[in-house]
Structure formats: C-alpha cells, structure tokens
Write a structure and sequence with these properties.
disordered N terminus; globular; 4 helices; homodimer; Pnp Oxidase, Chain A; alpha+beta; 6-stranded antiparallel β-barrel
C-alpha cells in the first residue's frame, strides 16, 4: 500500500542556513518556520544588482511551501526575476519579529528577544493565471485574513500590471532568542535593573476612508487582528 | 571669513536611490531620514556572499551621519568587512516601520502605510578604541535611550570579542506612504469597507530578571519608551 508523500517535519540544513554562531538558536522545524512567516506580512527582500546588495521591504504571502511576492511589472527585482523559463533571480527573504528588549547589568549582554526566518533561493515569475490569482489572494489574506473574499477581485488590466514572483521554502531556517538577560555571575550584585521589556505589534482603532459610503460597518474579521 | 561646513539639508540622489516607480514617495531630506532611523533599532543588513544575497536582522545605532552595527568577531558579515585598511564590505541597510494596513474596495489597491530608509555603502571595521566605545554606547542607547550610562561598560575582554562596523550615511533615501486607500472612482459605491487599520509598536509591562537583587526598581527612562 502506498501513501501520499507528506512534507517532512524539518527542512534540511545547508552550509548557508547553519549559523556560524549561536547555533542553539537555529531551528529547521517546518511548523516553527511557517508560524513565524504567518505572523508577519512584511519581509525584507535581498538581491544583487550590479554586484552590490539591495534590500527592500515588501509584502509576502505563503501557500504551503511557497512564498509569493508581488509588485508592479516595472519594479526592479520583479523584472530581474525574468519569465517562467528564465534562470530567475537569486534572493534572500528575511522576516523578523521583535519580541522584547533584553536589559542586562552589563552593556555587553544587552540583547533582543526575536524570532526570524531566513529563506535562500531563486525567485521566478509566476505566469499561470490560476496560480497568480491564488498568490494575490494569499498576499491580501496574509495581511488581513478573510479580506480577499470581501473585496473586488483584480480585473484583467490590474492582473496584467501586477508581477508575481515565487520562492520555494527549501533552504530555510528560523532563529529565535527568548528569556531574560544572561549576565555574568560577577555582575549579579551590581545596582542596575535587569530584565525584559516586551515588544508587541498592536492595532489601533480603524479609520474609515473619507469617501466610504454610509452604512458600511468595519468587517468582523478586523476584530481578529491581534 | 570662513564658516565650518555644516551638513546639507538633503542627501544627493544617486542612480540607485531614485526608485523606478512611486518617486513621489521618495525623500532625501536628512531630518526625515534621521527621524526614521532613530525610531528603530533593528535593521536588515544585506551583503553578498559567494555571489548570492544574504539578509540578516541586526541592531544598529546612529551618530551623526554614521551608522554603527556590531556583532561577534566571529560573525560572517563582520569578518567580511575586514580591517580598517581593507576595502570593506558592500552592504545595503534597510529600516522599515509599518504604520498601517490600507484596505481598499479593490484587492488591487490594498496597500501598507510605512516609512523606510535604505542605505547603500561600504561597511568598514571600526578599530579606534574611542570610536568603538562611542559606537557601542550608541547601539545600547538606540534601543533604550539613557541605558548605556546605567549599566556596566564593556571591559577589555568584552571589547575584544565585539566587532563594530560603520557605514556612512551618504547614498541614502527614505520612502513613505501615508493616507487612505486610492480606490478607482468606479469602485467607490461597492459594498466593501475601506480605510486604514493603524499599526504600532508597543511595549508591555517590564519583566524583572529572576535573579534581580531586591530593592532595584525599573529605571525611569523605561517609561519614556513609546
């Protein structure tokens, strides 16, 4: 009897996903990686242009083990990713959540609690229309879950103006720091406060568009944003 | 009569700091750039390794028109930046603040309110001891203003274990989006809510270290974090 191959529980570490230091903070666990990615919507996309690095903030969405990014068909990295048959654009995509400021007695042991994911790979244009629609829905729903079904879908002209690129989640790692400061034993009696200041992303009260038609209330799914 | 040269009000745009699109969102105003940098403390550092891009989150501090980054002497980008006399490491440093989710009637016009700064340049090791101490204080104070004076300064061994690199703010631009959704006129009567959900970074109640000596209260400057 044969079973469908299911995704393995972990990504395979590679030479460039094993950090040179703090290896105990690295993880290749698929669920951990997905959870970090799904909590965010802005990534930092790195690529090489004329031999020099470029890092740009951009939105992303995830579907299974594929990361989707989009932009104008005129934007630089999306043009550089080429067509579906071309070699694609080597990229590094990084997503970071800051969870706390770690204050130690010593300046040296000050740190940050965070969770981050780094993805290495080759970004390629998505040309299939169905996949492009799926990707764009995923991008909208990554920011506000449920929103893509509650807005006007892209028409043919808008679709033509939008470039979508994709990146396989294959060479990927997560890194995290948690907990309090790691002061040296000799410093514990120093008269400086030590501990953690939690950092969170929060949402303020919604601001309706000035030209919103009367009687349209904020949708319930906005209440689920935390 | 001669006056000391003061910093100009704006950075000079270059071919790579002028965006291919949304040029009206770009700014080279020095005060704008500094304000965005000073509101953050985590940047995304991009560099090229074996021809491929790498993007890592890391802390930074600013002193005038110099950005300082630090790390273990064993960390990859800091080793690659070489010594003071060496050519240095081409980098791109990007800082991004998300200010709001922009929900339009059309999926296409969904957007993000944000402010970001992108710095291109060559990172070099800081070897002068006085400048290294200034840089490390700036890094700590960037996260929690006032903290460097209220902790134990680095000793010789800690200083030796810390690499500091610097990057001139010269080829730099800011980009920002503000305001509500830009829906097409034909979409204004659609029955979808439209507006902005503000996003903020907030701080939770402080968590004292489990081994904190009794009687040490959280310092007043923590109250200034917003």
């Amino acid at each position: 009897m044969e079973y469908a191959m299911s995704a393995t529980a972990s990504y395979e570490p590679t030479e460039r996903t094993v950090p040179t230091r703090s290896r105990d903070r690295a993880s290749y666990d698929r669920a951990t990686v997905h959870a970090i990615l799904d909590e965010g919507y802005v990534c930092h996309l790195g690529f090489v242009r004329d031999g020099a690095p470029v890092v740009l903030p951009t939105l992303y969405g995830r579907v299974g083990d594929t990361l989707y990014l989009h932009g104008s068909t005129g934007s630089r990295p999306l043009r550089m990713a080429g067509g579906a048959e071309e070699p694609g654009l080597p990229v590094c995509v990084t997503v970071t959540h800051v969870d706390g400021l770690v204050l130690a007695r010593s300046a040296f042991h000050h740190s940050m609690n965070y969770r981050s994911v780094v993805v290495h790979g080759t970004a390629r244009q998505v040309t299939d229309e169905t996949e492009r629609r799926t990707a764009l829905d995923a991008l909208v729903d990554h920011v506000v879950p449920g929103r893509s079904a509650d807005s006007r879908p892209a028409d043919a002209k808008e679709l033509a103006a939008t470039a979508v690129i994709k990146l396989d989640l294959a060479e990927v790692s997560a890194k995290a720091r948690t907990g309090g400061p790691n002061d040296d034993a000799a410093d514990l009696e120093l008269p400086y406060w030590a501990g953690v200041v939690p950092v969170r992303r929060t949402y303020g009260g919604v601001v309706p568009s000035a030209d919103l038609a009367p009687g349209i209330e904020p949708p319930a799914y906005l209440g689920a944003l935390r």
